Structures are given as structure tokens and as C-alpha cells.
Amino acid sequence: MKKTFASGNMAIAEGALTAGLKFYAGYPITPSSEIMEYLAEKLPEYGGVLIQMEDEIASINAVIGASWAGAKAMTATSGPGFSLMAEAIGLATITETPLVVVNVMRAGPSTGVPTKTSQSDVLQARWMSHGDYIVPIYSPWSVQEAYDLTIKAFNTAELLRTPVVVLSDAVIAHLWEPLTLMERGEVEVISRKTPGDPTGEPYPPYKPDPDLVPPMPLFGRGFKVLVESLIHDERGFYSPRDDGYRSLVKRISLKVLKRLDYVYEQDARFTEDADVLLVSYGSTARSTYLATIELRKQGVKAGFLRLKTLWPLDDDRIRKTSNARKIIVVENNIGKIYLDIDRIFKDREVYPSPVLSLELPTPRDVLEAVEPWL
Amino acid sequence: MAVTRQIHPLDKHLRLERIPTLYCPGCGLGIALGALLRALDKRISEGAINPDKVLWVGGIGCSSRMVFYVNYDAAHVIHGRAIPFALGAVLANPDLLAIVTGGDGDIAGIGGNHLIHAARRNIDMIVLMFTNFVYAMTGGQVAPTTPRGVSTTTTPRGNPEYPVNAVKLVGSLNANYVARASVTTPHYIEQFFYKALGMRGFRFIEVVSTCPEIYGRHIGLRDPVEMYSELRKRIKYKHKPSLEEAEIDWERGIVIGEFVERSNPSLIEILKGVRS
């Protein structure tokens, strides 16, 4: 354990190193570039390789290739680059490739405001690629949590053989706070399961264990593995039939949902007596939390729920968090996670409270946005 | 009567349960694959290559699908991205020998930027580009290699654009090996690939192929034998030709040979500190 002082981008890089990162490919983009710059210094000292690619498409595809060669691998980017990675995220889901993609959100659409914050990519991150799949998404609200949730993202990716997204934003990226770094052994680090030595018989790389996750036969070990982007059977052979298609597509989603207890995390405070529940996440939750305390000072029984996992959501757990009559969702976009919260609390009054702000919304901004619903 | 299967000497290199291939009758890819496997077989039997370390990577297209017929580690990835996938794999495990296969559309069209930068980096891999002058799998649209004037399904009034010469493009960069062969000269495919297998850095071989089913319709050579014969007439082998001589033109002829042979340090050699 070591105490230091770091930015959110540095914390993400350190989290990746603690988790065992061995390969990084990326392309410069504000406000994520410091992650690559920091790792360019440090990753070689950890026996890893970093390469700056010709674009984000090349970056994410190189990360997928590196993962199959046995390396824990990641890339980091921001909105425009994240959009370019869409197709390859789908490749990673169907080939069940563990990897981590960090999207340091900035204001969009398109080039937007490169240096300013936003939370507008929260639904894009879920469904950015075509087809059916579930990609877990984590959203840190502090420098420490940027570190912790990056480790968690790697663990989830390795445990479930899936791509995982860390949604940071421009505020967390450049925020400096105290950070406690963990040594190997002080924190749980999960690595993908791999099959034993090849037997000479053809090995089915997509044959799942009871947890629905297949052991991953890596390149170069004699498995003659076939990584296949087409819908495939357990051998990796193209199989355009309904039964095989259904079982594969259902399995890659179910394997994540089966471990919802592991994947889903939240942070609930003052919820026991709450009449009004403020739901928030990421950097905006910092101000929502202070607004909650301010409301309590004013005599409003306000509660606070912060989503650390933005997808998949644990509907039951969220529902049981609070009996509040009113629920207000505070987020820095036009009202996106509101759609989920409204669905989950369908018997209560749920209100959107979008704070469209290029800077971190202040607690006063949050109070003003929440007030009409109180 | 019991049917016994004839064992072919290259069978051990194939996933036999996936044979026959989806290639059309008269397609040149079978000839090319046979030549490639003979070269690989030779290198393996000489003890120069460990077959467990061979990785075939293909994007999308007829020739990309070669990777799932071969009995090696393989990845059939997304359109145009075989090169960066292979780059990630070899950087993460430098013991791997990556062989990328793809068509002119996959490698020089949608994947063209990756081709340029892989050659510039001299990253350790072999890229085999099969040029049939058309997007065949999708039904005959214009390709970056389609000659001017040819009518395709998306250029019904004739292709108004100039084609790319991938050999000249890659040769102008930092690739260690640049060659061109034709399915009408399988011995050169075998010879060039054999040489490439023994080298480091970025190695690029363009294989001019026949596609009577799709491209043949566009140029009036629907008969496989006729198309093969017409291509053969146009192929001119030259011994160590210059890049300036790397003509690929249906009227003026198609020059094949080994255009570039360098021994520049590869990216992996530089990263490992073996060479600088």
C-alpha cells in the first residue's frame, strides 16, 4: 500500500498496472491522452508494450489481438475515438475477448467541446456496436475510485471473458486527489481461466463451463484456436442456424447477468428515512451528494444513490434501496439513465434532472435543477 | 463398397472438416493456398518454424476466409482490420509468426491506412494480398484495384477512377520484402512466401488471382480456363525488378517478381533491443 497524489487519468493507468496490464494501444485524444503518456513511461517497466496506433480503430483491434496472445490489454479514448471503436467492441463481445476500454467523456456530439466534461455517452457505451450483447460499464466519481474501478473492470473482463468499459469524464481525468495504491496481493486480481495443455484433439474455444464462460485457449500454445467474428458453434465454425445463433447470443449476455452480484456496485447513503432519493453517478454525483447534505440541513429527508455500475443494472437491488416517494435523477446529459430509473421505480414519482454543464455542476446547480420536483 | 479417402500431403495443414471451401469453380485462391502451404510445409519440415506459433489472420472477403481452412491458430476478424489485430498479437507474444490474408478491398481499400502504417513500422508479419480487381463476395462492386473503364455493379458506366498499385505503395515505405506473383505462376507464390517466412519485419506479397465468376462477368471472361489463360498471357516475370517497373495493367501487362528486399531492423527487433 502506498499513498500518493494523482489525477484521475493517472489513477486509471495505475489501476491497469495493478491489474496486470501488459499491452496498451491507443491514439491521442483530449481529455484521455495522459493515460497513454503515463503508461508510455511506466508500462515497459512492468514488462508490457505500448504502441501509439494510426487511429482508434487500429488501437482497439490491436488490443483484441494482444488479448488472444495472452496479454491483459486496454485502450483509452474519448467520444470521437470511442465512436470509431464501435465495430470492434462487437468483435470483442462475439469472440469473448477480455479487454478494457476507457472512455474519458467530453461534450459532444461530434467534435463537441474536447476539453470540457459531459456524461452524454452513457447509453452509447451500452449499445455502441450492432447486435445483441451486454458490455459491463463502470463509472468512477473520484481519483481513488478511478483506480479501484479500473482494477474491477479488468477483473470483470477476465472473469467473464468480455470487453468492459470504464466511463470517466473530463472532470475526473484532470482532478487531483489523494490516491492509495495497492501492491499485488493486497487487492484481488483475477486472470482469465485457460485450458490445460493441448491433447492433440481439436479444442473447442467456445465451449462454456457451467458458469457459461469458456476457458480461453491462447495463441501460440498448440490449440489451433479459431477466433471467429461470424456467428459460430463451440468449435468456432460459422453456423448460420437459429439454434446455434440463439444459444450463442443468449449465452454471451447470460454469462454477465449470471454474475450480476459481482458486476453491479452502488453506493447508497441516507436512504433509510428518505422521502426524496437523488440518483446520480460519476463526477456529477460529487455535487449531487453535497446537494443531498444541503437538503437534509434544510429539513428535506433526502437520500442519495450513486450508481458505480451503469450497465447491467441490478433492478431489484436499486428498487430495494429506498422507499422514497420521489426519485430525482441528476446527470450531466439530456436525461439518459433517468429512463432506467423511471422503469425500475415504475410505481413512484421519478423525475429527470438533467444538468447540461460543460463544467462540473456545482451543488447549487444541482439544487436548482432538483428544486422544481421537491 | 468402402470408400477410402486419398491422403494429400498437405492435409495436415488443413481443417479437413471444413473442406470443401466456399470458393467458386475457377477461383484462383485454391491454387494460391496450395502454393502457400507447400512453402510453409517446407519451412516446418526444415525445423525453421514451430507450427504452434503460426497465426493466420484474415479480415472479410473470400481470401480472408482462407484462415479458417488452415489447421493453425487463426482469427477471422472484421473488415480491413486483420493487420492491427495481428500487430497486437505479435507485440504481445513476439514468438508468434503472423500471416495476414486478404483481398485487395480488405487490405488496400478499407484497411489501406493500416497497410501503410504497418509497412512504415516494419512490424513483423507477412501480408498476402490477393488481387482479383473487384469486390467479389458482395457481388461485383468496384475495388480500389479495378482498372479504369471497367463496368461493375457500382460503376455501370465504367470505372472513372485510377487504381492503386499496392506494390509501389508498400515498396515506398519501410517494408523489408515486397513481391508480386500470380495464380498462373504458383511456383513463384511458393518461392516468394518461402523466402518471406525466413525473414523479419514487414513482408508483403501481392498475388494476382482469377475471379471468373464475378470479375469475369464484368470483362467478358466468364469461362475459368479462358480467364486463367488471358491472365497468364499478361504476366511478365522479371528478376529483381525495380518499383518503377511494377506495372499492373490489363493492357500493358502485369510485372511479377521480388521488388524490394531489405534487412532493416523490424519493430520487434528494435523494441527488444536486438537491433536499433
Radius of gyration of CA atoms of chain B, rounded to a whole number: 18 Å
What kind of sheet is the major sheet of chain A? 7 strands, mixed
Can you tell me the CATH superfamily of the largest domain in chain A?
Thiamin diphosphate (ThDP)-binding fold, Pyr/PP domains
CATH-level-4 superfamily name of chain B? Thiamin diphosphate (ThDP)-binding fold, Pyr/PP domains
List how many beta strands of chain B DSSP finds.
9
**Name of the CATH class of chain B:** Alpha Beta
Count helical runs of chain A: 14
Give the domain tally of chain A. Answer: 2
Number of DSSP strand runs of chain A: 15
Binned, the helix content of chain B reads 25-40%
How much strand content do the residues of chain B show?
Answer: 15-25%
The biggest chain-chain interface is: A-B, 43 and 36 residues
Tell me the overall shape of chain A: globular
CA-CA gap between termini of chain A: 44 Å
Task: Please summarize the sheet with the most strands of chain B.
Answer: 9 strands, mixed
Mean pLDDT of chain B: 96
**Structural class given helices, strands, pairing of chain B?**
alpha/beta
